[in-house]
Design a protein that fits this description.
Shape: flat
Largest sheet: 8 strands, parallel
Mean pLDDT: 95
Strand order of the largest sheet: 21-20-19-18-15-14-13-22
Strand content: 25-35%
Oligomer: single chain
Number of strands: 32
């Protein structure tokens, strides 16, 4: 395998050498040494790959678009400490790995690109280093991992995740028990229109249904127009005594998390009036984007004073209110502008990526010192191996009612997130939906921890029954669903079928395929999330079965008579095969 090098500075020595081959996986060391310290320009490695039995592209950031693109409109995967991960995979029509490329450096800005060269029937592939300006360096080293083995694509990408953990030094944070249990989120239920007594009532209804934590999202703080962002003071018009509010939820038996948008500081109100935000005045000159026209400023974590302030905010909130966790949002919004690229000797860290890394280490250490079981949630796009060191919950990005995105991204994250708790985007649905349709919001993200964000008080009784049944089913099977070995067919269709397996027991969800093989599985619980009202069960002759609907009501029991048998299973129903 040969890499061509482009963009190397004239005064730099750049080499790419194969250093090892382990079990069919190739390892290459990239080294760059500059004559004198300087900000590196973009460095590109290019190679070609023959398109033979190669159907699509996989990366954790693909969303629903995986097709091979032309080399004049390449498929790109971006990575830096606060966004994405340096992994790019191509696979065959039957889900076999054709090439999986990963880079050990998950901190610095890197992008992968690949596109079809129509003249050569090959893929032009690129790794671009330093795609965003970084601090001056004298030398750079990283390792490139190339997997060309004919193995299932799931195995190829899972092994990259393990490599990051074991060989690259990205040890994931400890995951406490409550990070692995269903939650209620206030966001879609209330947005910013929070109401203390109504939230208490929702918690009273959530706990019996199986939700163990309530996340109080945006809207709890002062400043209806975001002009007060940065001071993080409780809106006492909504919560006269926030500590008492938290205590009341604790008495119900639920944990409490609180939302913060980490980088943001308000300056103007919605009418562009300067609100004299004291935080803005205190930190003026320590923002990444303060050109004079921004509505919201972004803190620059390269200043120790900024990092100490942010850490103090979260520590004080956890201690003062007795919080069990925090949702730290918008970390992916830390980014350079023309303003931030100007030098300033007052910064104690030159590199923005290193400053984000230091900030997150210090936040994690400070919060876990208070409570080793503290819950820390991150959401896409900051979900890579580096960020997993600092949080114990990774959540799919906002995709309200979009079951397809929730399915694709939750499975994407499960494949590359090891034992870190992967959470769905908050689940909501129209209360006038048929209950079977509403249940599809859950079945499409059944292989991660469900977060619920509907007003339970307003749900029809059948919806409540369905929600209770599915959360109970999920909890009883969570070791298989969220922590078993996960497999997923046909990524190019955003997964036609997925299943988790542990100790020979499986939970299988049919999304578009209606033919399900049972074979040697000890037990199989098969969810019908297809457009069909029946499933075809293969190789389960002589085994007992039971069919239930989405509310857990038994519809049929019997014995499977043949090796290929069609059994009626309604939408969002389950067939249990013993």
């Amino acid at each position: 395998m040969k890499f061509d090098i482009f963009g190397a500075p004239e005064n730099a020595k750049v080499t790419v050498e194969q250093t090892a081959e382990k079990d069919g996986v190739l390892f290459f060391d990239l080294d760059m040494v500059l004559e004198e310290e300087a900000i590196p320009k973009q460095l590109t490695l290019k190679w070609t790959f023959d398109v033979i039995d190669t159907l699509c592209t996989w990366s954790a950031a693909c969303d629903t678009l995986r097709y091979l693109r032309p080399n004049f409109g390449t498929h790109k995967t971006h990575s830096r400490i606060a966004s994405g991960m340096p992994l790019h995979c191509h696979f065959s029509r039957d889900g076999r790995n054709r090439q999986t490329i990963a880079v050990a450096d998950a901190k610095n800005p890197i992008s992968f690109a690949s596109g079809v060269n129509e003249y050569t029937a090959s893929l032009d592939c690129y790794i671009n280093f330093f795609t965003v300006s970084v601090a001056p360096i004298k030398e750079y080293h990283t390792t490139i991992r190339v997997d060309l083995r004919d193995i299932p694509y799931e195995q190829a990408v899972k092994e990259v995740s393990k490599w990051w953990e074991t060989d690259c030094g990205y040890t994931p944070a400890y995951v406490p028990e409550h990070a692995k249990l269903p939650m209620n989120s206030s966001w879609y239920t209330y947005h910013r229109g929070l109401d203390e007594e109504d939230i208490i009532r929702e918690c009273e209804l959530s706990k019996p249904l199986g939700m163990e934590t309530i996340l109080i999202d945006d809207g709890w703080q002062k400043g209806d127009d975001y002009s007060r962002l940065g001071d993080w003071l409780v809106n006492t018009d909504i919560f006269p005594d926030f500590k008492n509010f938290v205590d009341r939820i604790h008495k119900i038996g639920m944990k409490v998390m609180l939302w913060f948008s980490v980088p943001f500081v308000g300056r103007w109100d919605a009418d562009n009036h300067d609100v004299e935000n004291n935080v803005y005045k205190r930190f003026k000159g320590m923002f990444l984007n303060d050109s004079g026209v921004e509505w919201i400023l972004h803190f620059d974590p390269r200043y120790k004073e900024v990092r100490d302030y942010l850490i103090g905010i979260y520590v004080n909130a956890v201690k003062t209110y007795g919080l069990d966790g925090v949702k730290l949002d918008f970390i992916d919004s830390f980014g350079h502008t023309d303003v931030s690229l100007k030098p300033d000797d007052k910064r104690d860290i030159k590199s923005l990526e290193e400053a984000i890394n230091t900030l997150m280490i210090d936040i994690h250490n400070a919060l876990t010192e208070i409570n080793p079981d503290i819950l820390i949630e991150f959401r896409e796009s900051y979900v890579g191996p580096c960020i997993r060191q600092f949080g114990n919950m990774l959540r799919v990005h906002d995709c309200a009612i979009d079951a397809l995105i929730n399915r694709a991204d939750s499975i994407n994250l499960r494949l590359v997130s090891g034992n870190t708790a992967v959470h769905s985007d908050m689940l909501m649905w129209n209360k006038n939906e048929p209950v079977e349709n509403a249940a599809m919001q859950i079945t499409n993200c059944i292989y991660c921890v469900p977060q619920i964000s509907v007003k339970i008080q307003e749900l029809p009784e059948d919806h409540k029954k369905m929600l209770g049944f599915y959360l109970d089913f999920w909890r009883k099977n969570r070791d298989i669903l969220a922590y078993g070995d996960i497999f997923a067919k046909n990524p190019e269709t955003n997964y036609s079928m997925a299943w988790g397996v542990k100790d020979g027991n499986a939970v299988i969800t049919a999304y578009t395929d209606s033919l399900v093989e049972v074979g040697d599985l000890k037990t199989a619980k098969i969810i019908n999330s297809t457009r069909y009202d029946a499933l075809v069960i293969k190789n389960a002759k002589g085994r007992d079965f039971e069919v239930v609907n989405c509310m857990g009501e038994v519809l049929e029991t019997g014995k499977i008579d043949s090796n290929l048998e069609e059994i009626n299973v309604p939408l969002s129903g389950i067939i249990f095969i013993k």
